[in-house]
Amino acid sequence: MAVRYNEERKIFRLDTDKSTYLMGLTPEGYLGHIYYGDRLFKRVDNYMLRMEEAPFTPSVNKREKSAFLDSFPMEYPTGGIGDFRESCLNVRNEAGQMGCEIHYVTHEIYKGKKPLKGLPASFGTDDEVETLDITCEDPVLGLQVILSYSVFEKENVITRSVRLHNTGSQHLKIEKVYSACLDMDNEDFEMLTLQGAWARERHIQQGKIRYGKQMVSSVRGESSHQQQPFFALITPGTSQQQGKVYGMHFVYSGNFIGQAELSQFDSVRAVMGINQEEFCWNLKEDQEFQAPEVVMVYSSEGLGQMTRSYHDFYRNHMIRSKYNHKKRPILINNWEATYFDFDTEKLLDIAREAKACGIEMLVMDDGWFGVRNNDDCSLGDWKVNTDKITGGLKHLVDEVNKIGLDFGIWFEPEMVSPDSELYRNHPEWAIQIQGREAAQSRQQYVLDLSRRDVLDYVYESVASILRSANIVYVKWDMNRCLCDLGSAYLEKEQQQELFHRYVLGVYELQERLVTEFPDLLLENCSSGGARFDPGMLYYSPQIWCSDDTDAIERLSIQEGTALVYPLSTMGAHVSDCPNHSVGRVTPFETRGHVALTGTFGYELDITKIPQEDRKMIPDQTRMYHKYHELIREGDYYRIASYSENHLYDCWAAASKDKKEVLVTYVQVLGRPNVHSRRLFLQGFDPEGVYLLEGTQEKYTGEMLMKCGFLIRDFTGDFKSRLYHFMKAE
Ligand code: GLA
Question: Does the N-terminal or the C-terminal CB of the chain have fewer CB atoms within 10 Å?
Answer without folding.
Answer: C
